[in-house]
Amino acid sequence: MKEIRGNVIVGQSGGPTAVINSSLVGVYKTARDRGAKIVYGMLHGIQGLLESRVVDLSDHIKSDLDIELLKRTPSSYLGSCRFKLPEIHEDQEIYKKIFHILDDMEIEYFFYIGGNDSMDTIKKLSDYSILNGSRIRFMGVPKTIDNDLAATDHTPGYGSAAKYIGSITKEVIRDGLVYDQQNVTLIEIMGRNAGWLTGAAALAKCEDCEGPDMIFLPEIPFDIEEFMNKIAGLHKQKKSVVVAISEGIRVEDGRYVCELTDNVDYVDAFGHRQLTGTARYLASRIARETGCKTRAIEFSSLQRCASHMVSRVDITEAYQVGGAAVKAAFEGETGKMVILKRISDDPYICVTDIYDVHKVANIEKKVPREWINEAGDYVTEEFLNYLRPLIQAELTPIMTDGLPRHLYCKNNKNQ
């Protein structure tokens, strides 16, 4: 086996997941096994790199125990960022600075673990590299609980988040049955424009649980009056009603439901508004108009950091895409993202491949309309058949004094 002859750098960007560090381990270990001299880590992604904030990962990952701990550690070990690179023709100076830093560090291979916005970064850096005859190869490693990256069957991070959502939804439904009175529980689940996560609430429907009564995804316009009528209809049949809603559901004119009452002020570098309060708004309206007890539950960051409920399939694939990115770069690829290709559902078989990052960046993959029922208030069995293989099996945390043990980066001032 040939060896990598230069140095490697890897960063993490965007929202974290329960398995993103397994991809980091996949990059690190595969690069070291192939003879990389130094594997650097960017602290807080490309933004940290611009400030020359990097670490030698061999100073942090020193043993097999460290590797196993890091695989099981949620969130981004190196820290993250939401930093949008300008178009190359708009500001060449920032690119000159980045490549000057990389050249000084003798970097030949650059890996970025992230979602849509991170692939935009890989696209721009690889384009600049080719235009200027740089030897550096750039590869994207997929990550996002939102599962909205194009080309790949699914993204690492999604399976574990879905497993958590399905499990906790079952418990919320059980909790709602305690009291002999009418009540409505609204579960708000992440998902700006794609409903992959919210649809996972349907996993709760099984032989020991009837599942949520309705599920609303952002792919379908949300009619508040129709929703209120459906709630009233359900209460004629049962006392406890549980509804899963995406934070990104919108009314017909395009406004987010959460914008109907509260101003949403925070906007990140990519123009994404912070969405919150959808469940609270609807719960307040139900309570006001019906007088019944309501509860709004936001899963929020819990759904992306629950490493105690990680899917073994998910954490294994996260490691594999990291290693596959290193192998592809070593073989001469650049400007590509690793993808997962499903070969079979039963038995579940998935392999890695590579795909042109230009055909991935800034493209959102949404839930197919045929995987949502005709009424637009639930997902179909096809959706669940797609999802179930991704949540299978567990990886037990390494416990210390009754709690999961994690690996943290002492150089990261935020940890």
TrEMBL record:
Site location (Important for catalytic activity and substrate specificity): 117
Subunit structure: Homodimer.
Main location: cytoplasm
InterPro entries: ATP_PFK, PFKA, Phosphofructokinase_dom, PKF_sf, PPi-PFK
Protein known as: Pyrophosphate--fructose 6-phosphate 1-phosphotransferase
Record's keyword terms, sorted: Cytoplasm, Glycolysis, Kinase, Magnesium, Metal-binding, Transferase
Cell compartment(s), UniProt: Cytoplasm
EC number: 2.7.1.90
Binding residues for diphosphate: 15
Domain Phosphofructokinase positions: 8-328
Residues that coordinate or bind Mg(2+): 116
Function of the protein: Catalyzes the phosphorylation of D-fructose 6-phosphate, the first committing step of glycolysis. Uses inorganic phosphate (PPi) as phosphoryl donor instead of ATP like common ATP-dependent phosphofructokinases (ATP-PFKs), which renders the reaction reversible, and can thus function both in glycolysis and gluconeogenesis. Consistently, PPi-PFK can replace the enzymes of both the forward (ATP-PFK) and reverse (fructose-bisphosphatase (FBPase)) reactions.
Active site feature: 146 (proton acceptor)
Protein family: Belongs to the phosphofructokinase type A (PFKA) family. PPi-dependent PFK group II subfamily. Clade 'B2' sub-subfamily.
Organism whose genome encodes this protein: Lacrimispora defluvii
Reaction it catalyzes: beta-D-fructose 6-phosphate + diphosphate = beta-D-fructose 1,6-bisphosphate + phosphate + H(+)
Cofactor(s) annotated in UniProt: Mg(2+)
Activity regulation behaviour: Non-allosteric.
Class of the enzyme per the UniProt entry, highest EC level: transferase
Residues holding substrate: 144-146, 190-192, 247
Marked site (Important for catalytic activity) residue numbers: 143
Superkingdom: Bacteria
PANTHER family reported for this sequence: ATP-DEPENDENT 6-PHOSPHOFRUCTOKINASE 1
Pathway: Carbohydrate degradation; glycolysis; D-glyceraldehyde 3-phosphate and glycerone phosphate from D-glucose: step 3/4
